[in-house]
Each structure stands twice: as structure tokens, then as C-alpha cells.
Specification:
Layout (H helix, E strand, L loop, with lengths): L4 H40 L1 H12 L5 H17 L1
Helix pairs in contact: 1-2, 2-3
Length: about 80
């Protein structure tokens, strides 16, 4: 039996939801990899470390995000 129009729409919406989820997963993976590279670079390069501190200081972060970064930023400030 042929699918109704509503069934076809539901199938298309489900496919779109799966594609959106896959896109978010890929984006998250890229952020993790680049973040790791940037953190490693900041540990060994004072210029990158200073740039990141400046970026964090100039950002309007959520309280939880600022609290999460504070120990790392404090460590970097002592290194500089």
C-alpha cells in the first residue's frame, strides 16, 4: 500500500532530524579537536596563551562557563 502524504511528511521530517543530529555531532567533534590543539598550543606558546586570556577576559561568558575556565586562566596568568 502506498504511503499517505502525512506518512511521507513524517518520514521526511525524521530524516531531516537525523541529518541535523549528524551535523551537530560533526560540529562538536571539530570543536573538541580544535580546542585540544589550541589548549596544547597555549601551554607552550606565551603569545597564544596571552591571546586566549585576552579573548576570555573580553567575552561575555555564562557564569558556569566562566567558573569552568577560571582555574585554567589562573594557571595561565601565573605562567605569563
Amino acid at each position: 500500500m502506498a504511503k499517505t502524504l502525512d506518512q511521507k511528511i513524517a518520514d521526511a521530517e525524521a530524516r531531516l532530524a537525523r541529518l541535523r543530529l549528524e551535523t551537530r555531532k560533526q560540529d562538536t567533534g571539530r570543536k573538541i579537536v580544535l580546542g585540544g590543539i589550541l589548549l596544547a598550543a597555549a601551554e607552550s606558546d606565551p603569545a597564544i596563551r596571552a591571546w586566549l586570556i585576552k579573548r576570555v577576559d573580553g567575552s561575555k561568558l555564562r557564569k558556569t562557563d566562566a567558573e569552568r575556565l577560571e582555574p585554567l586562566i589562573a594557571k595561565w596568568r601565573k605562567m605569563s
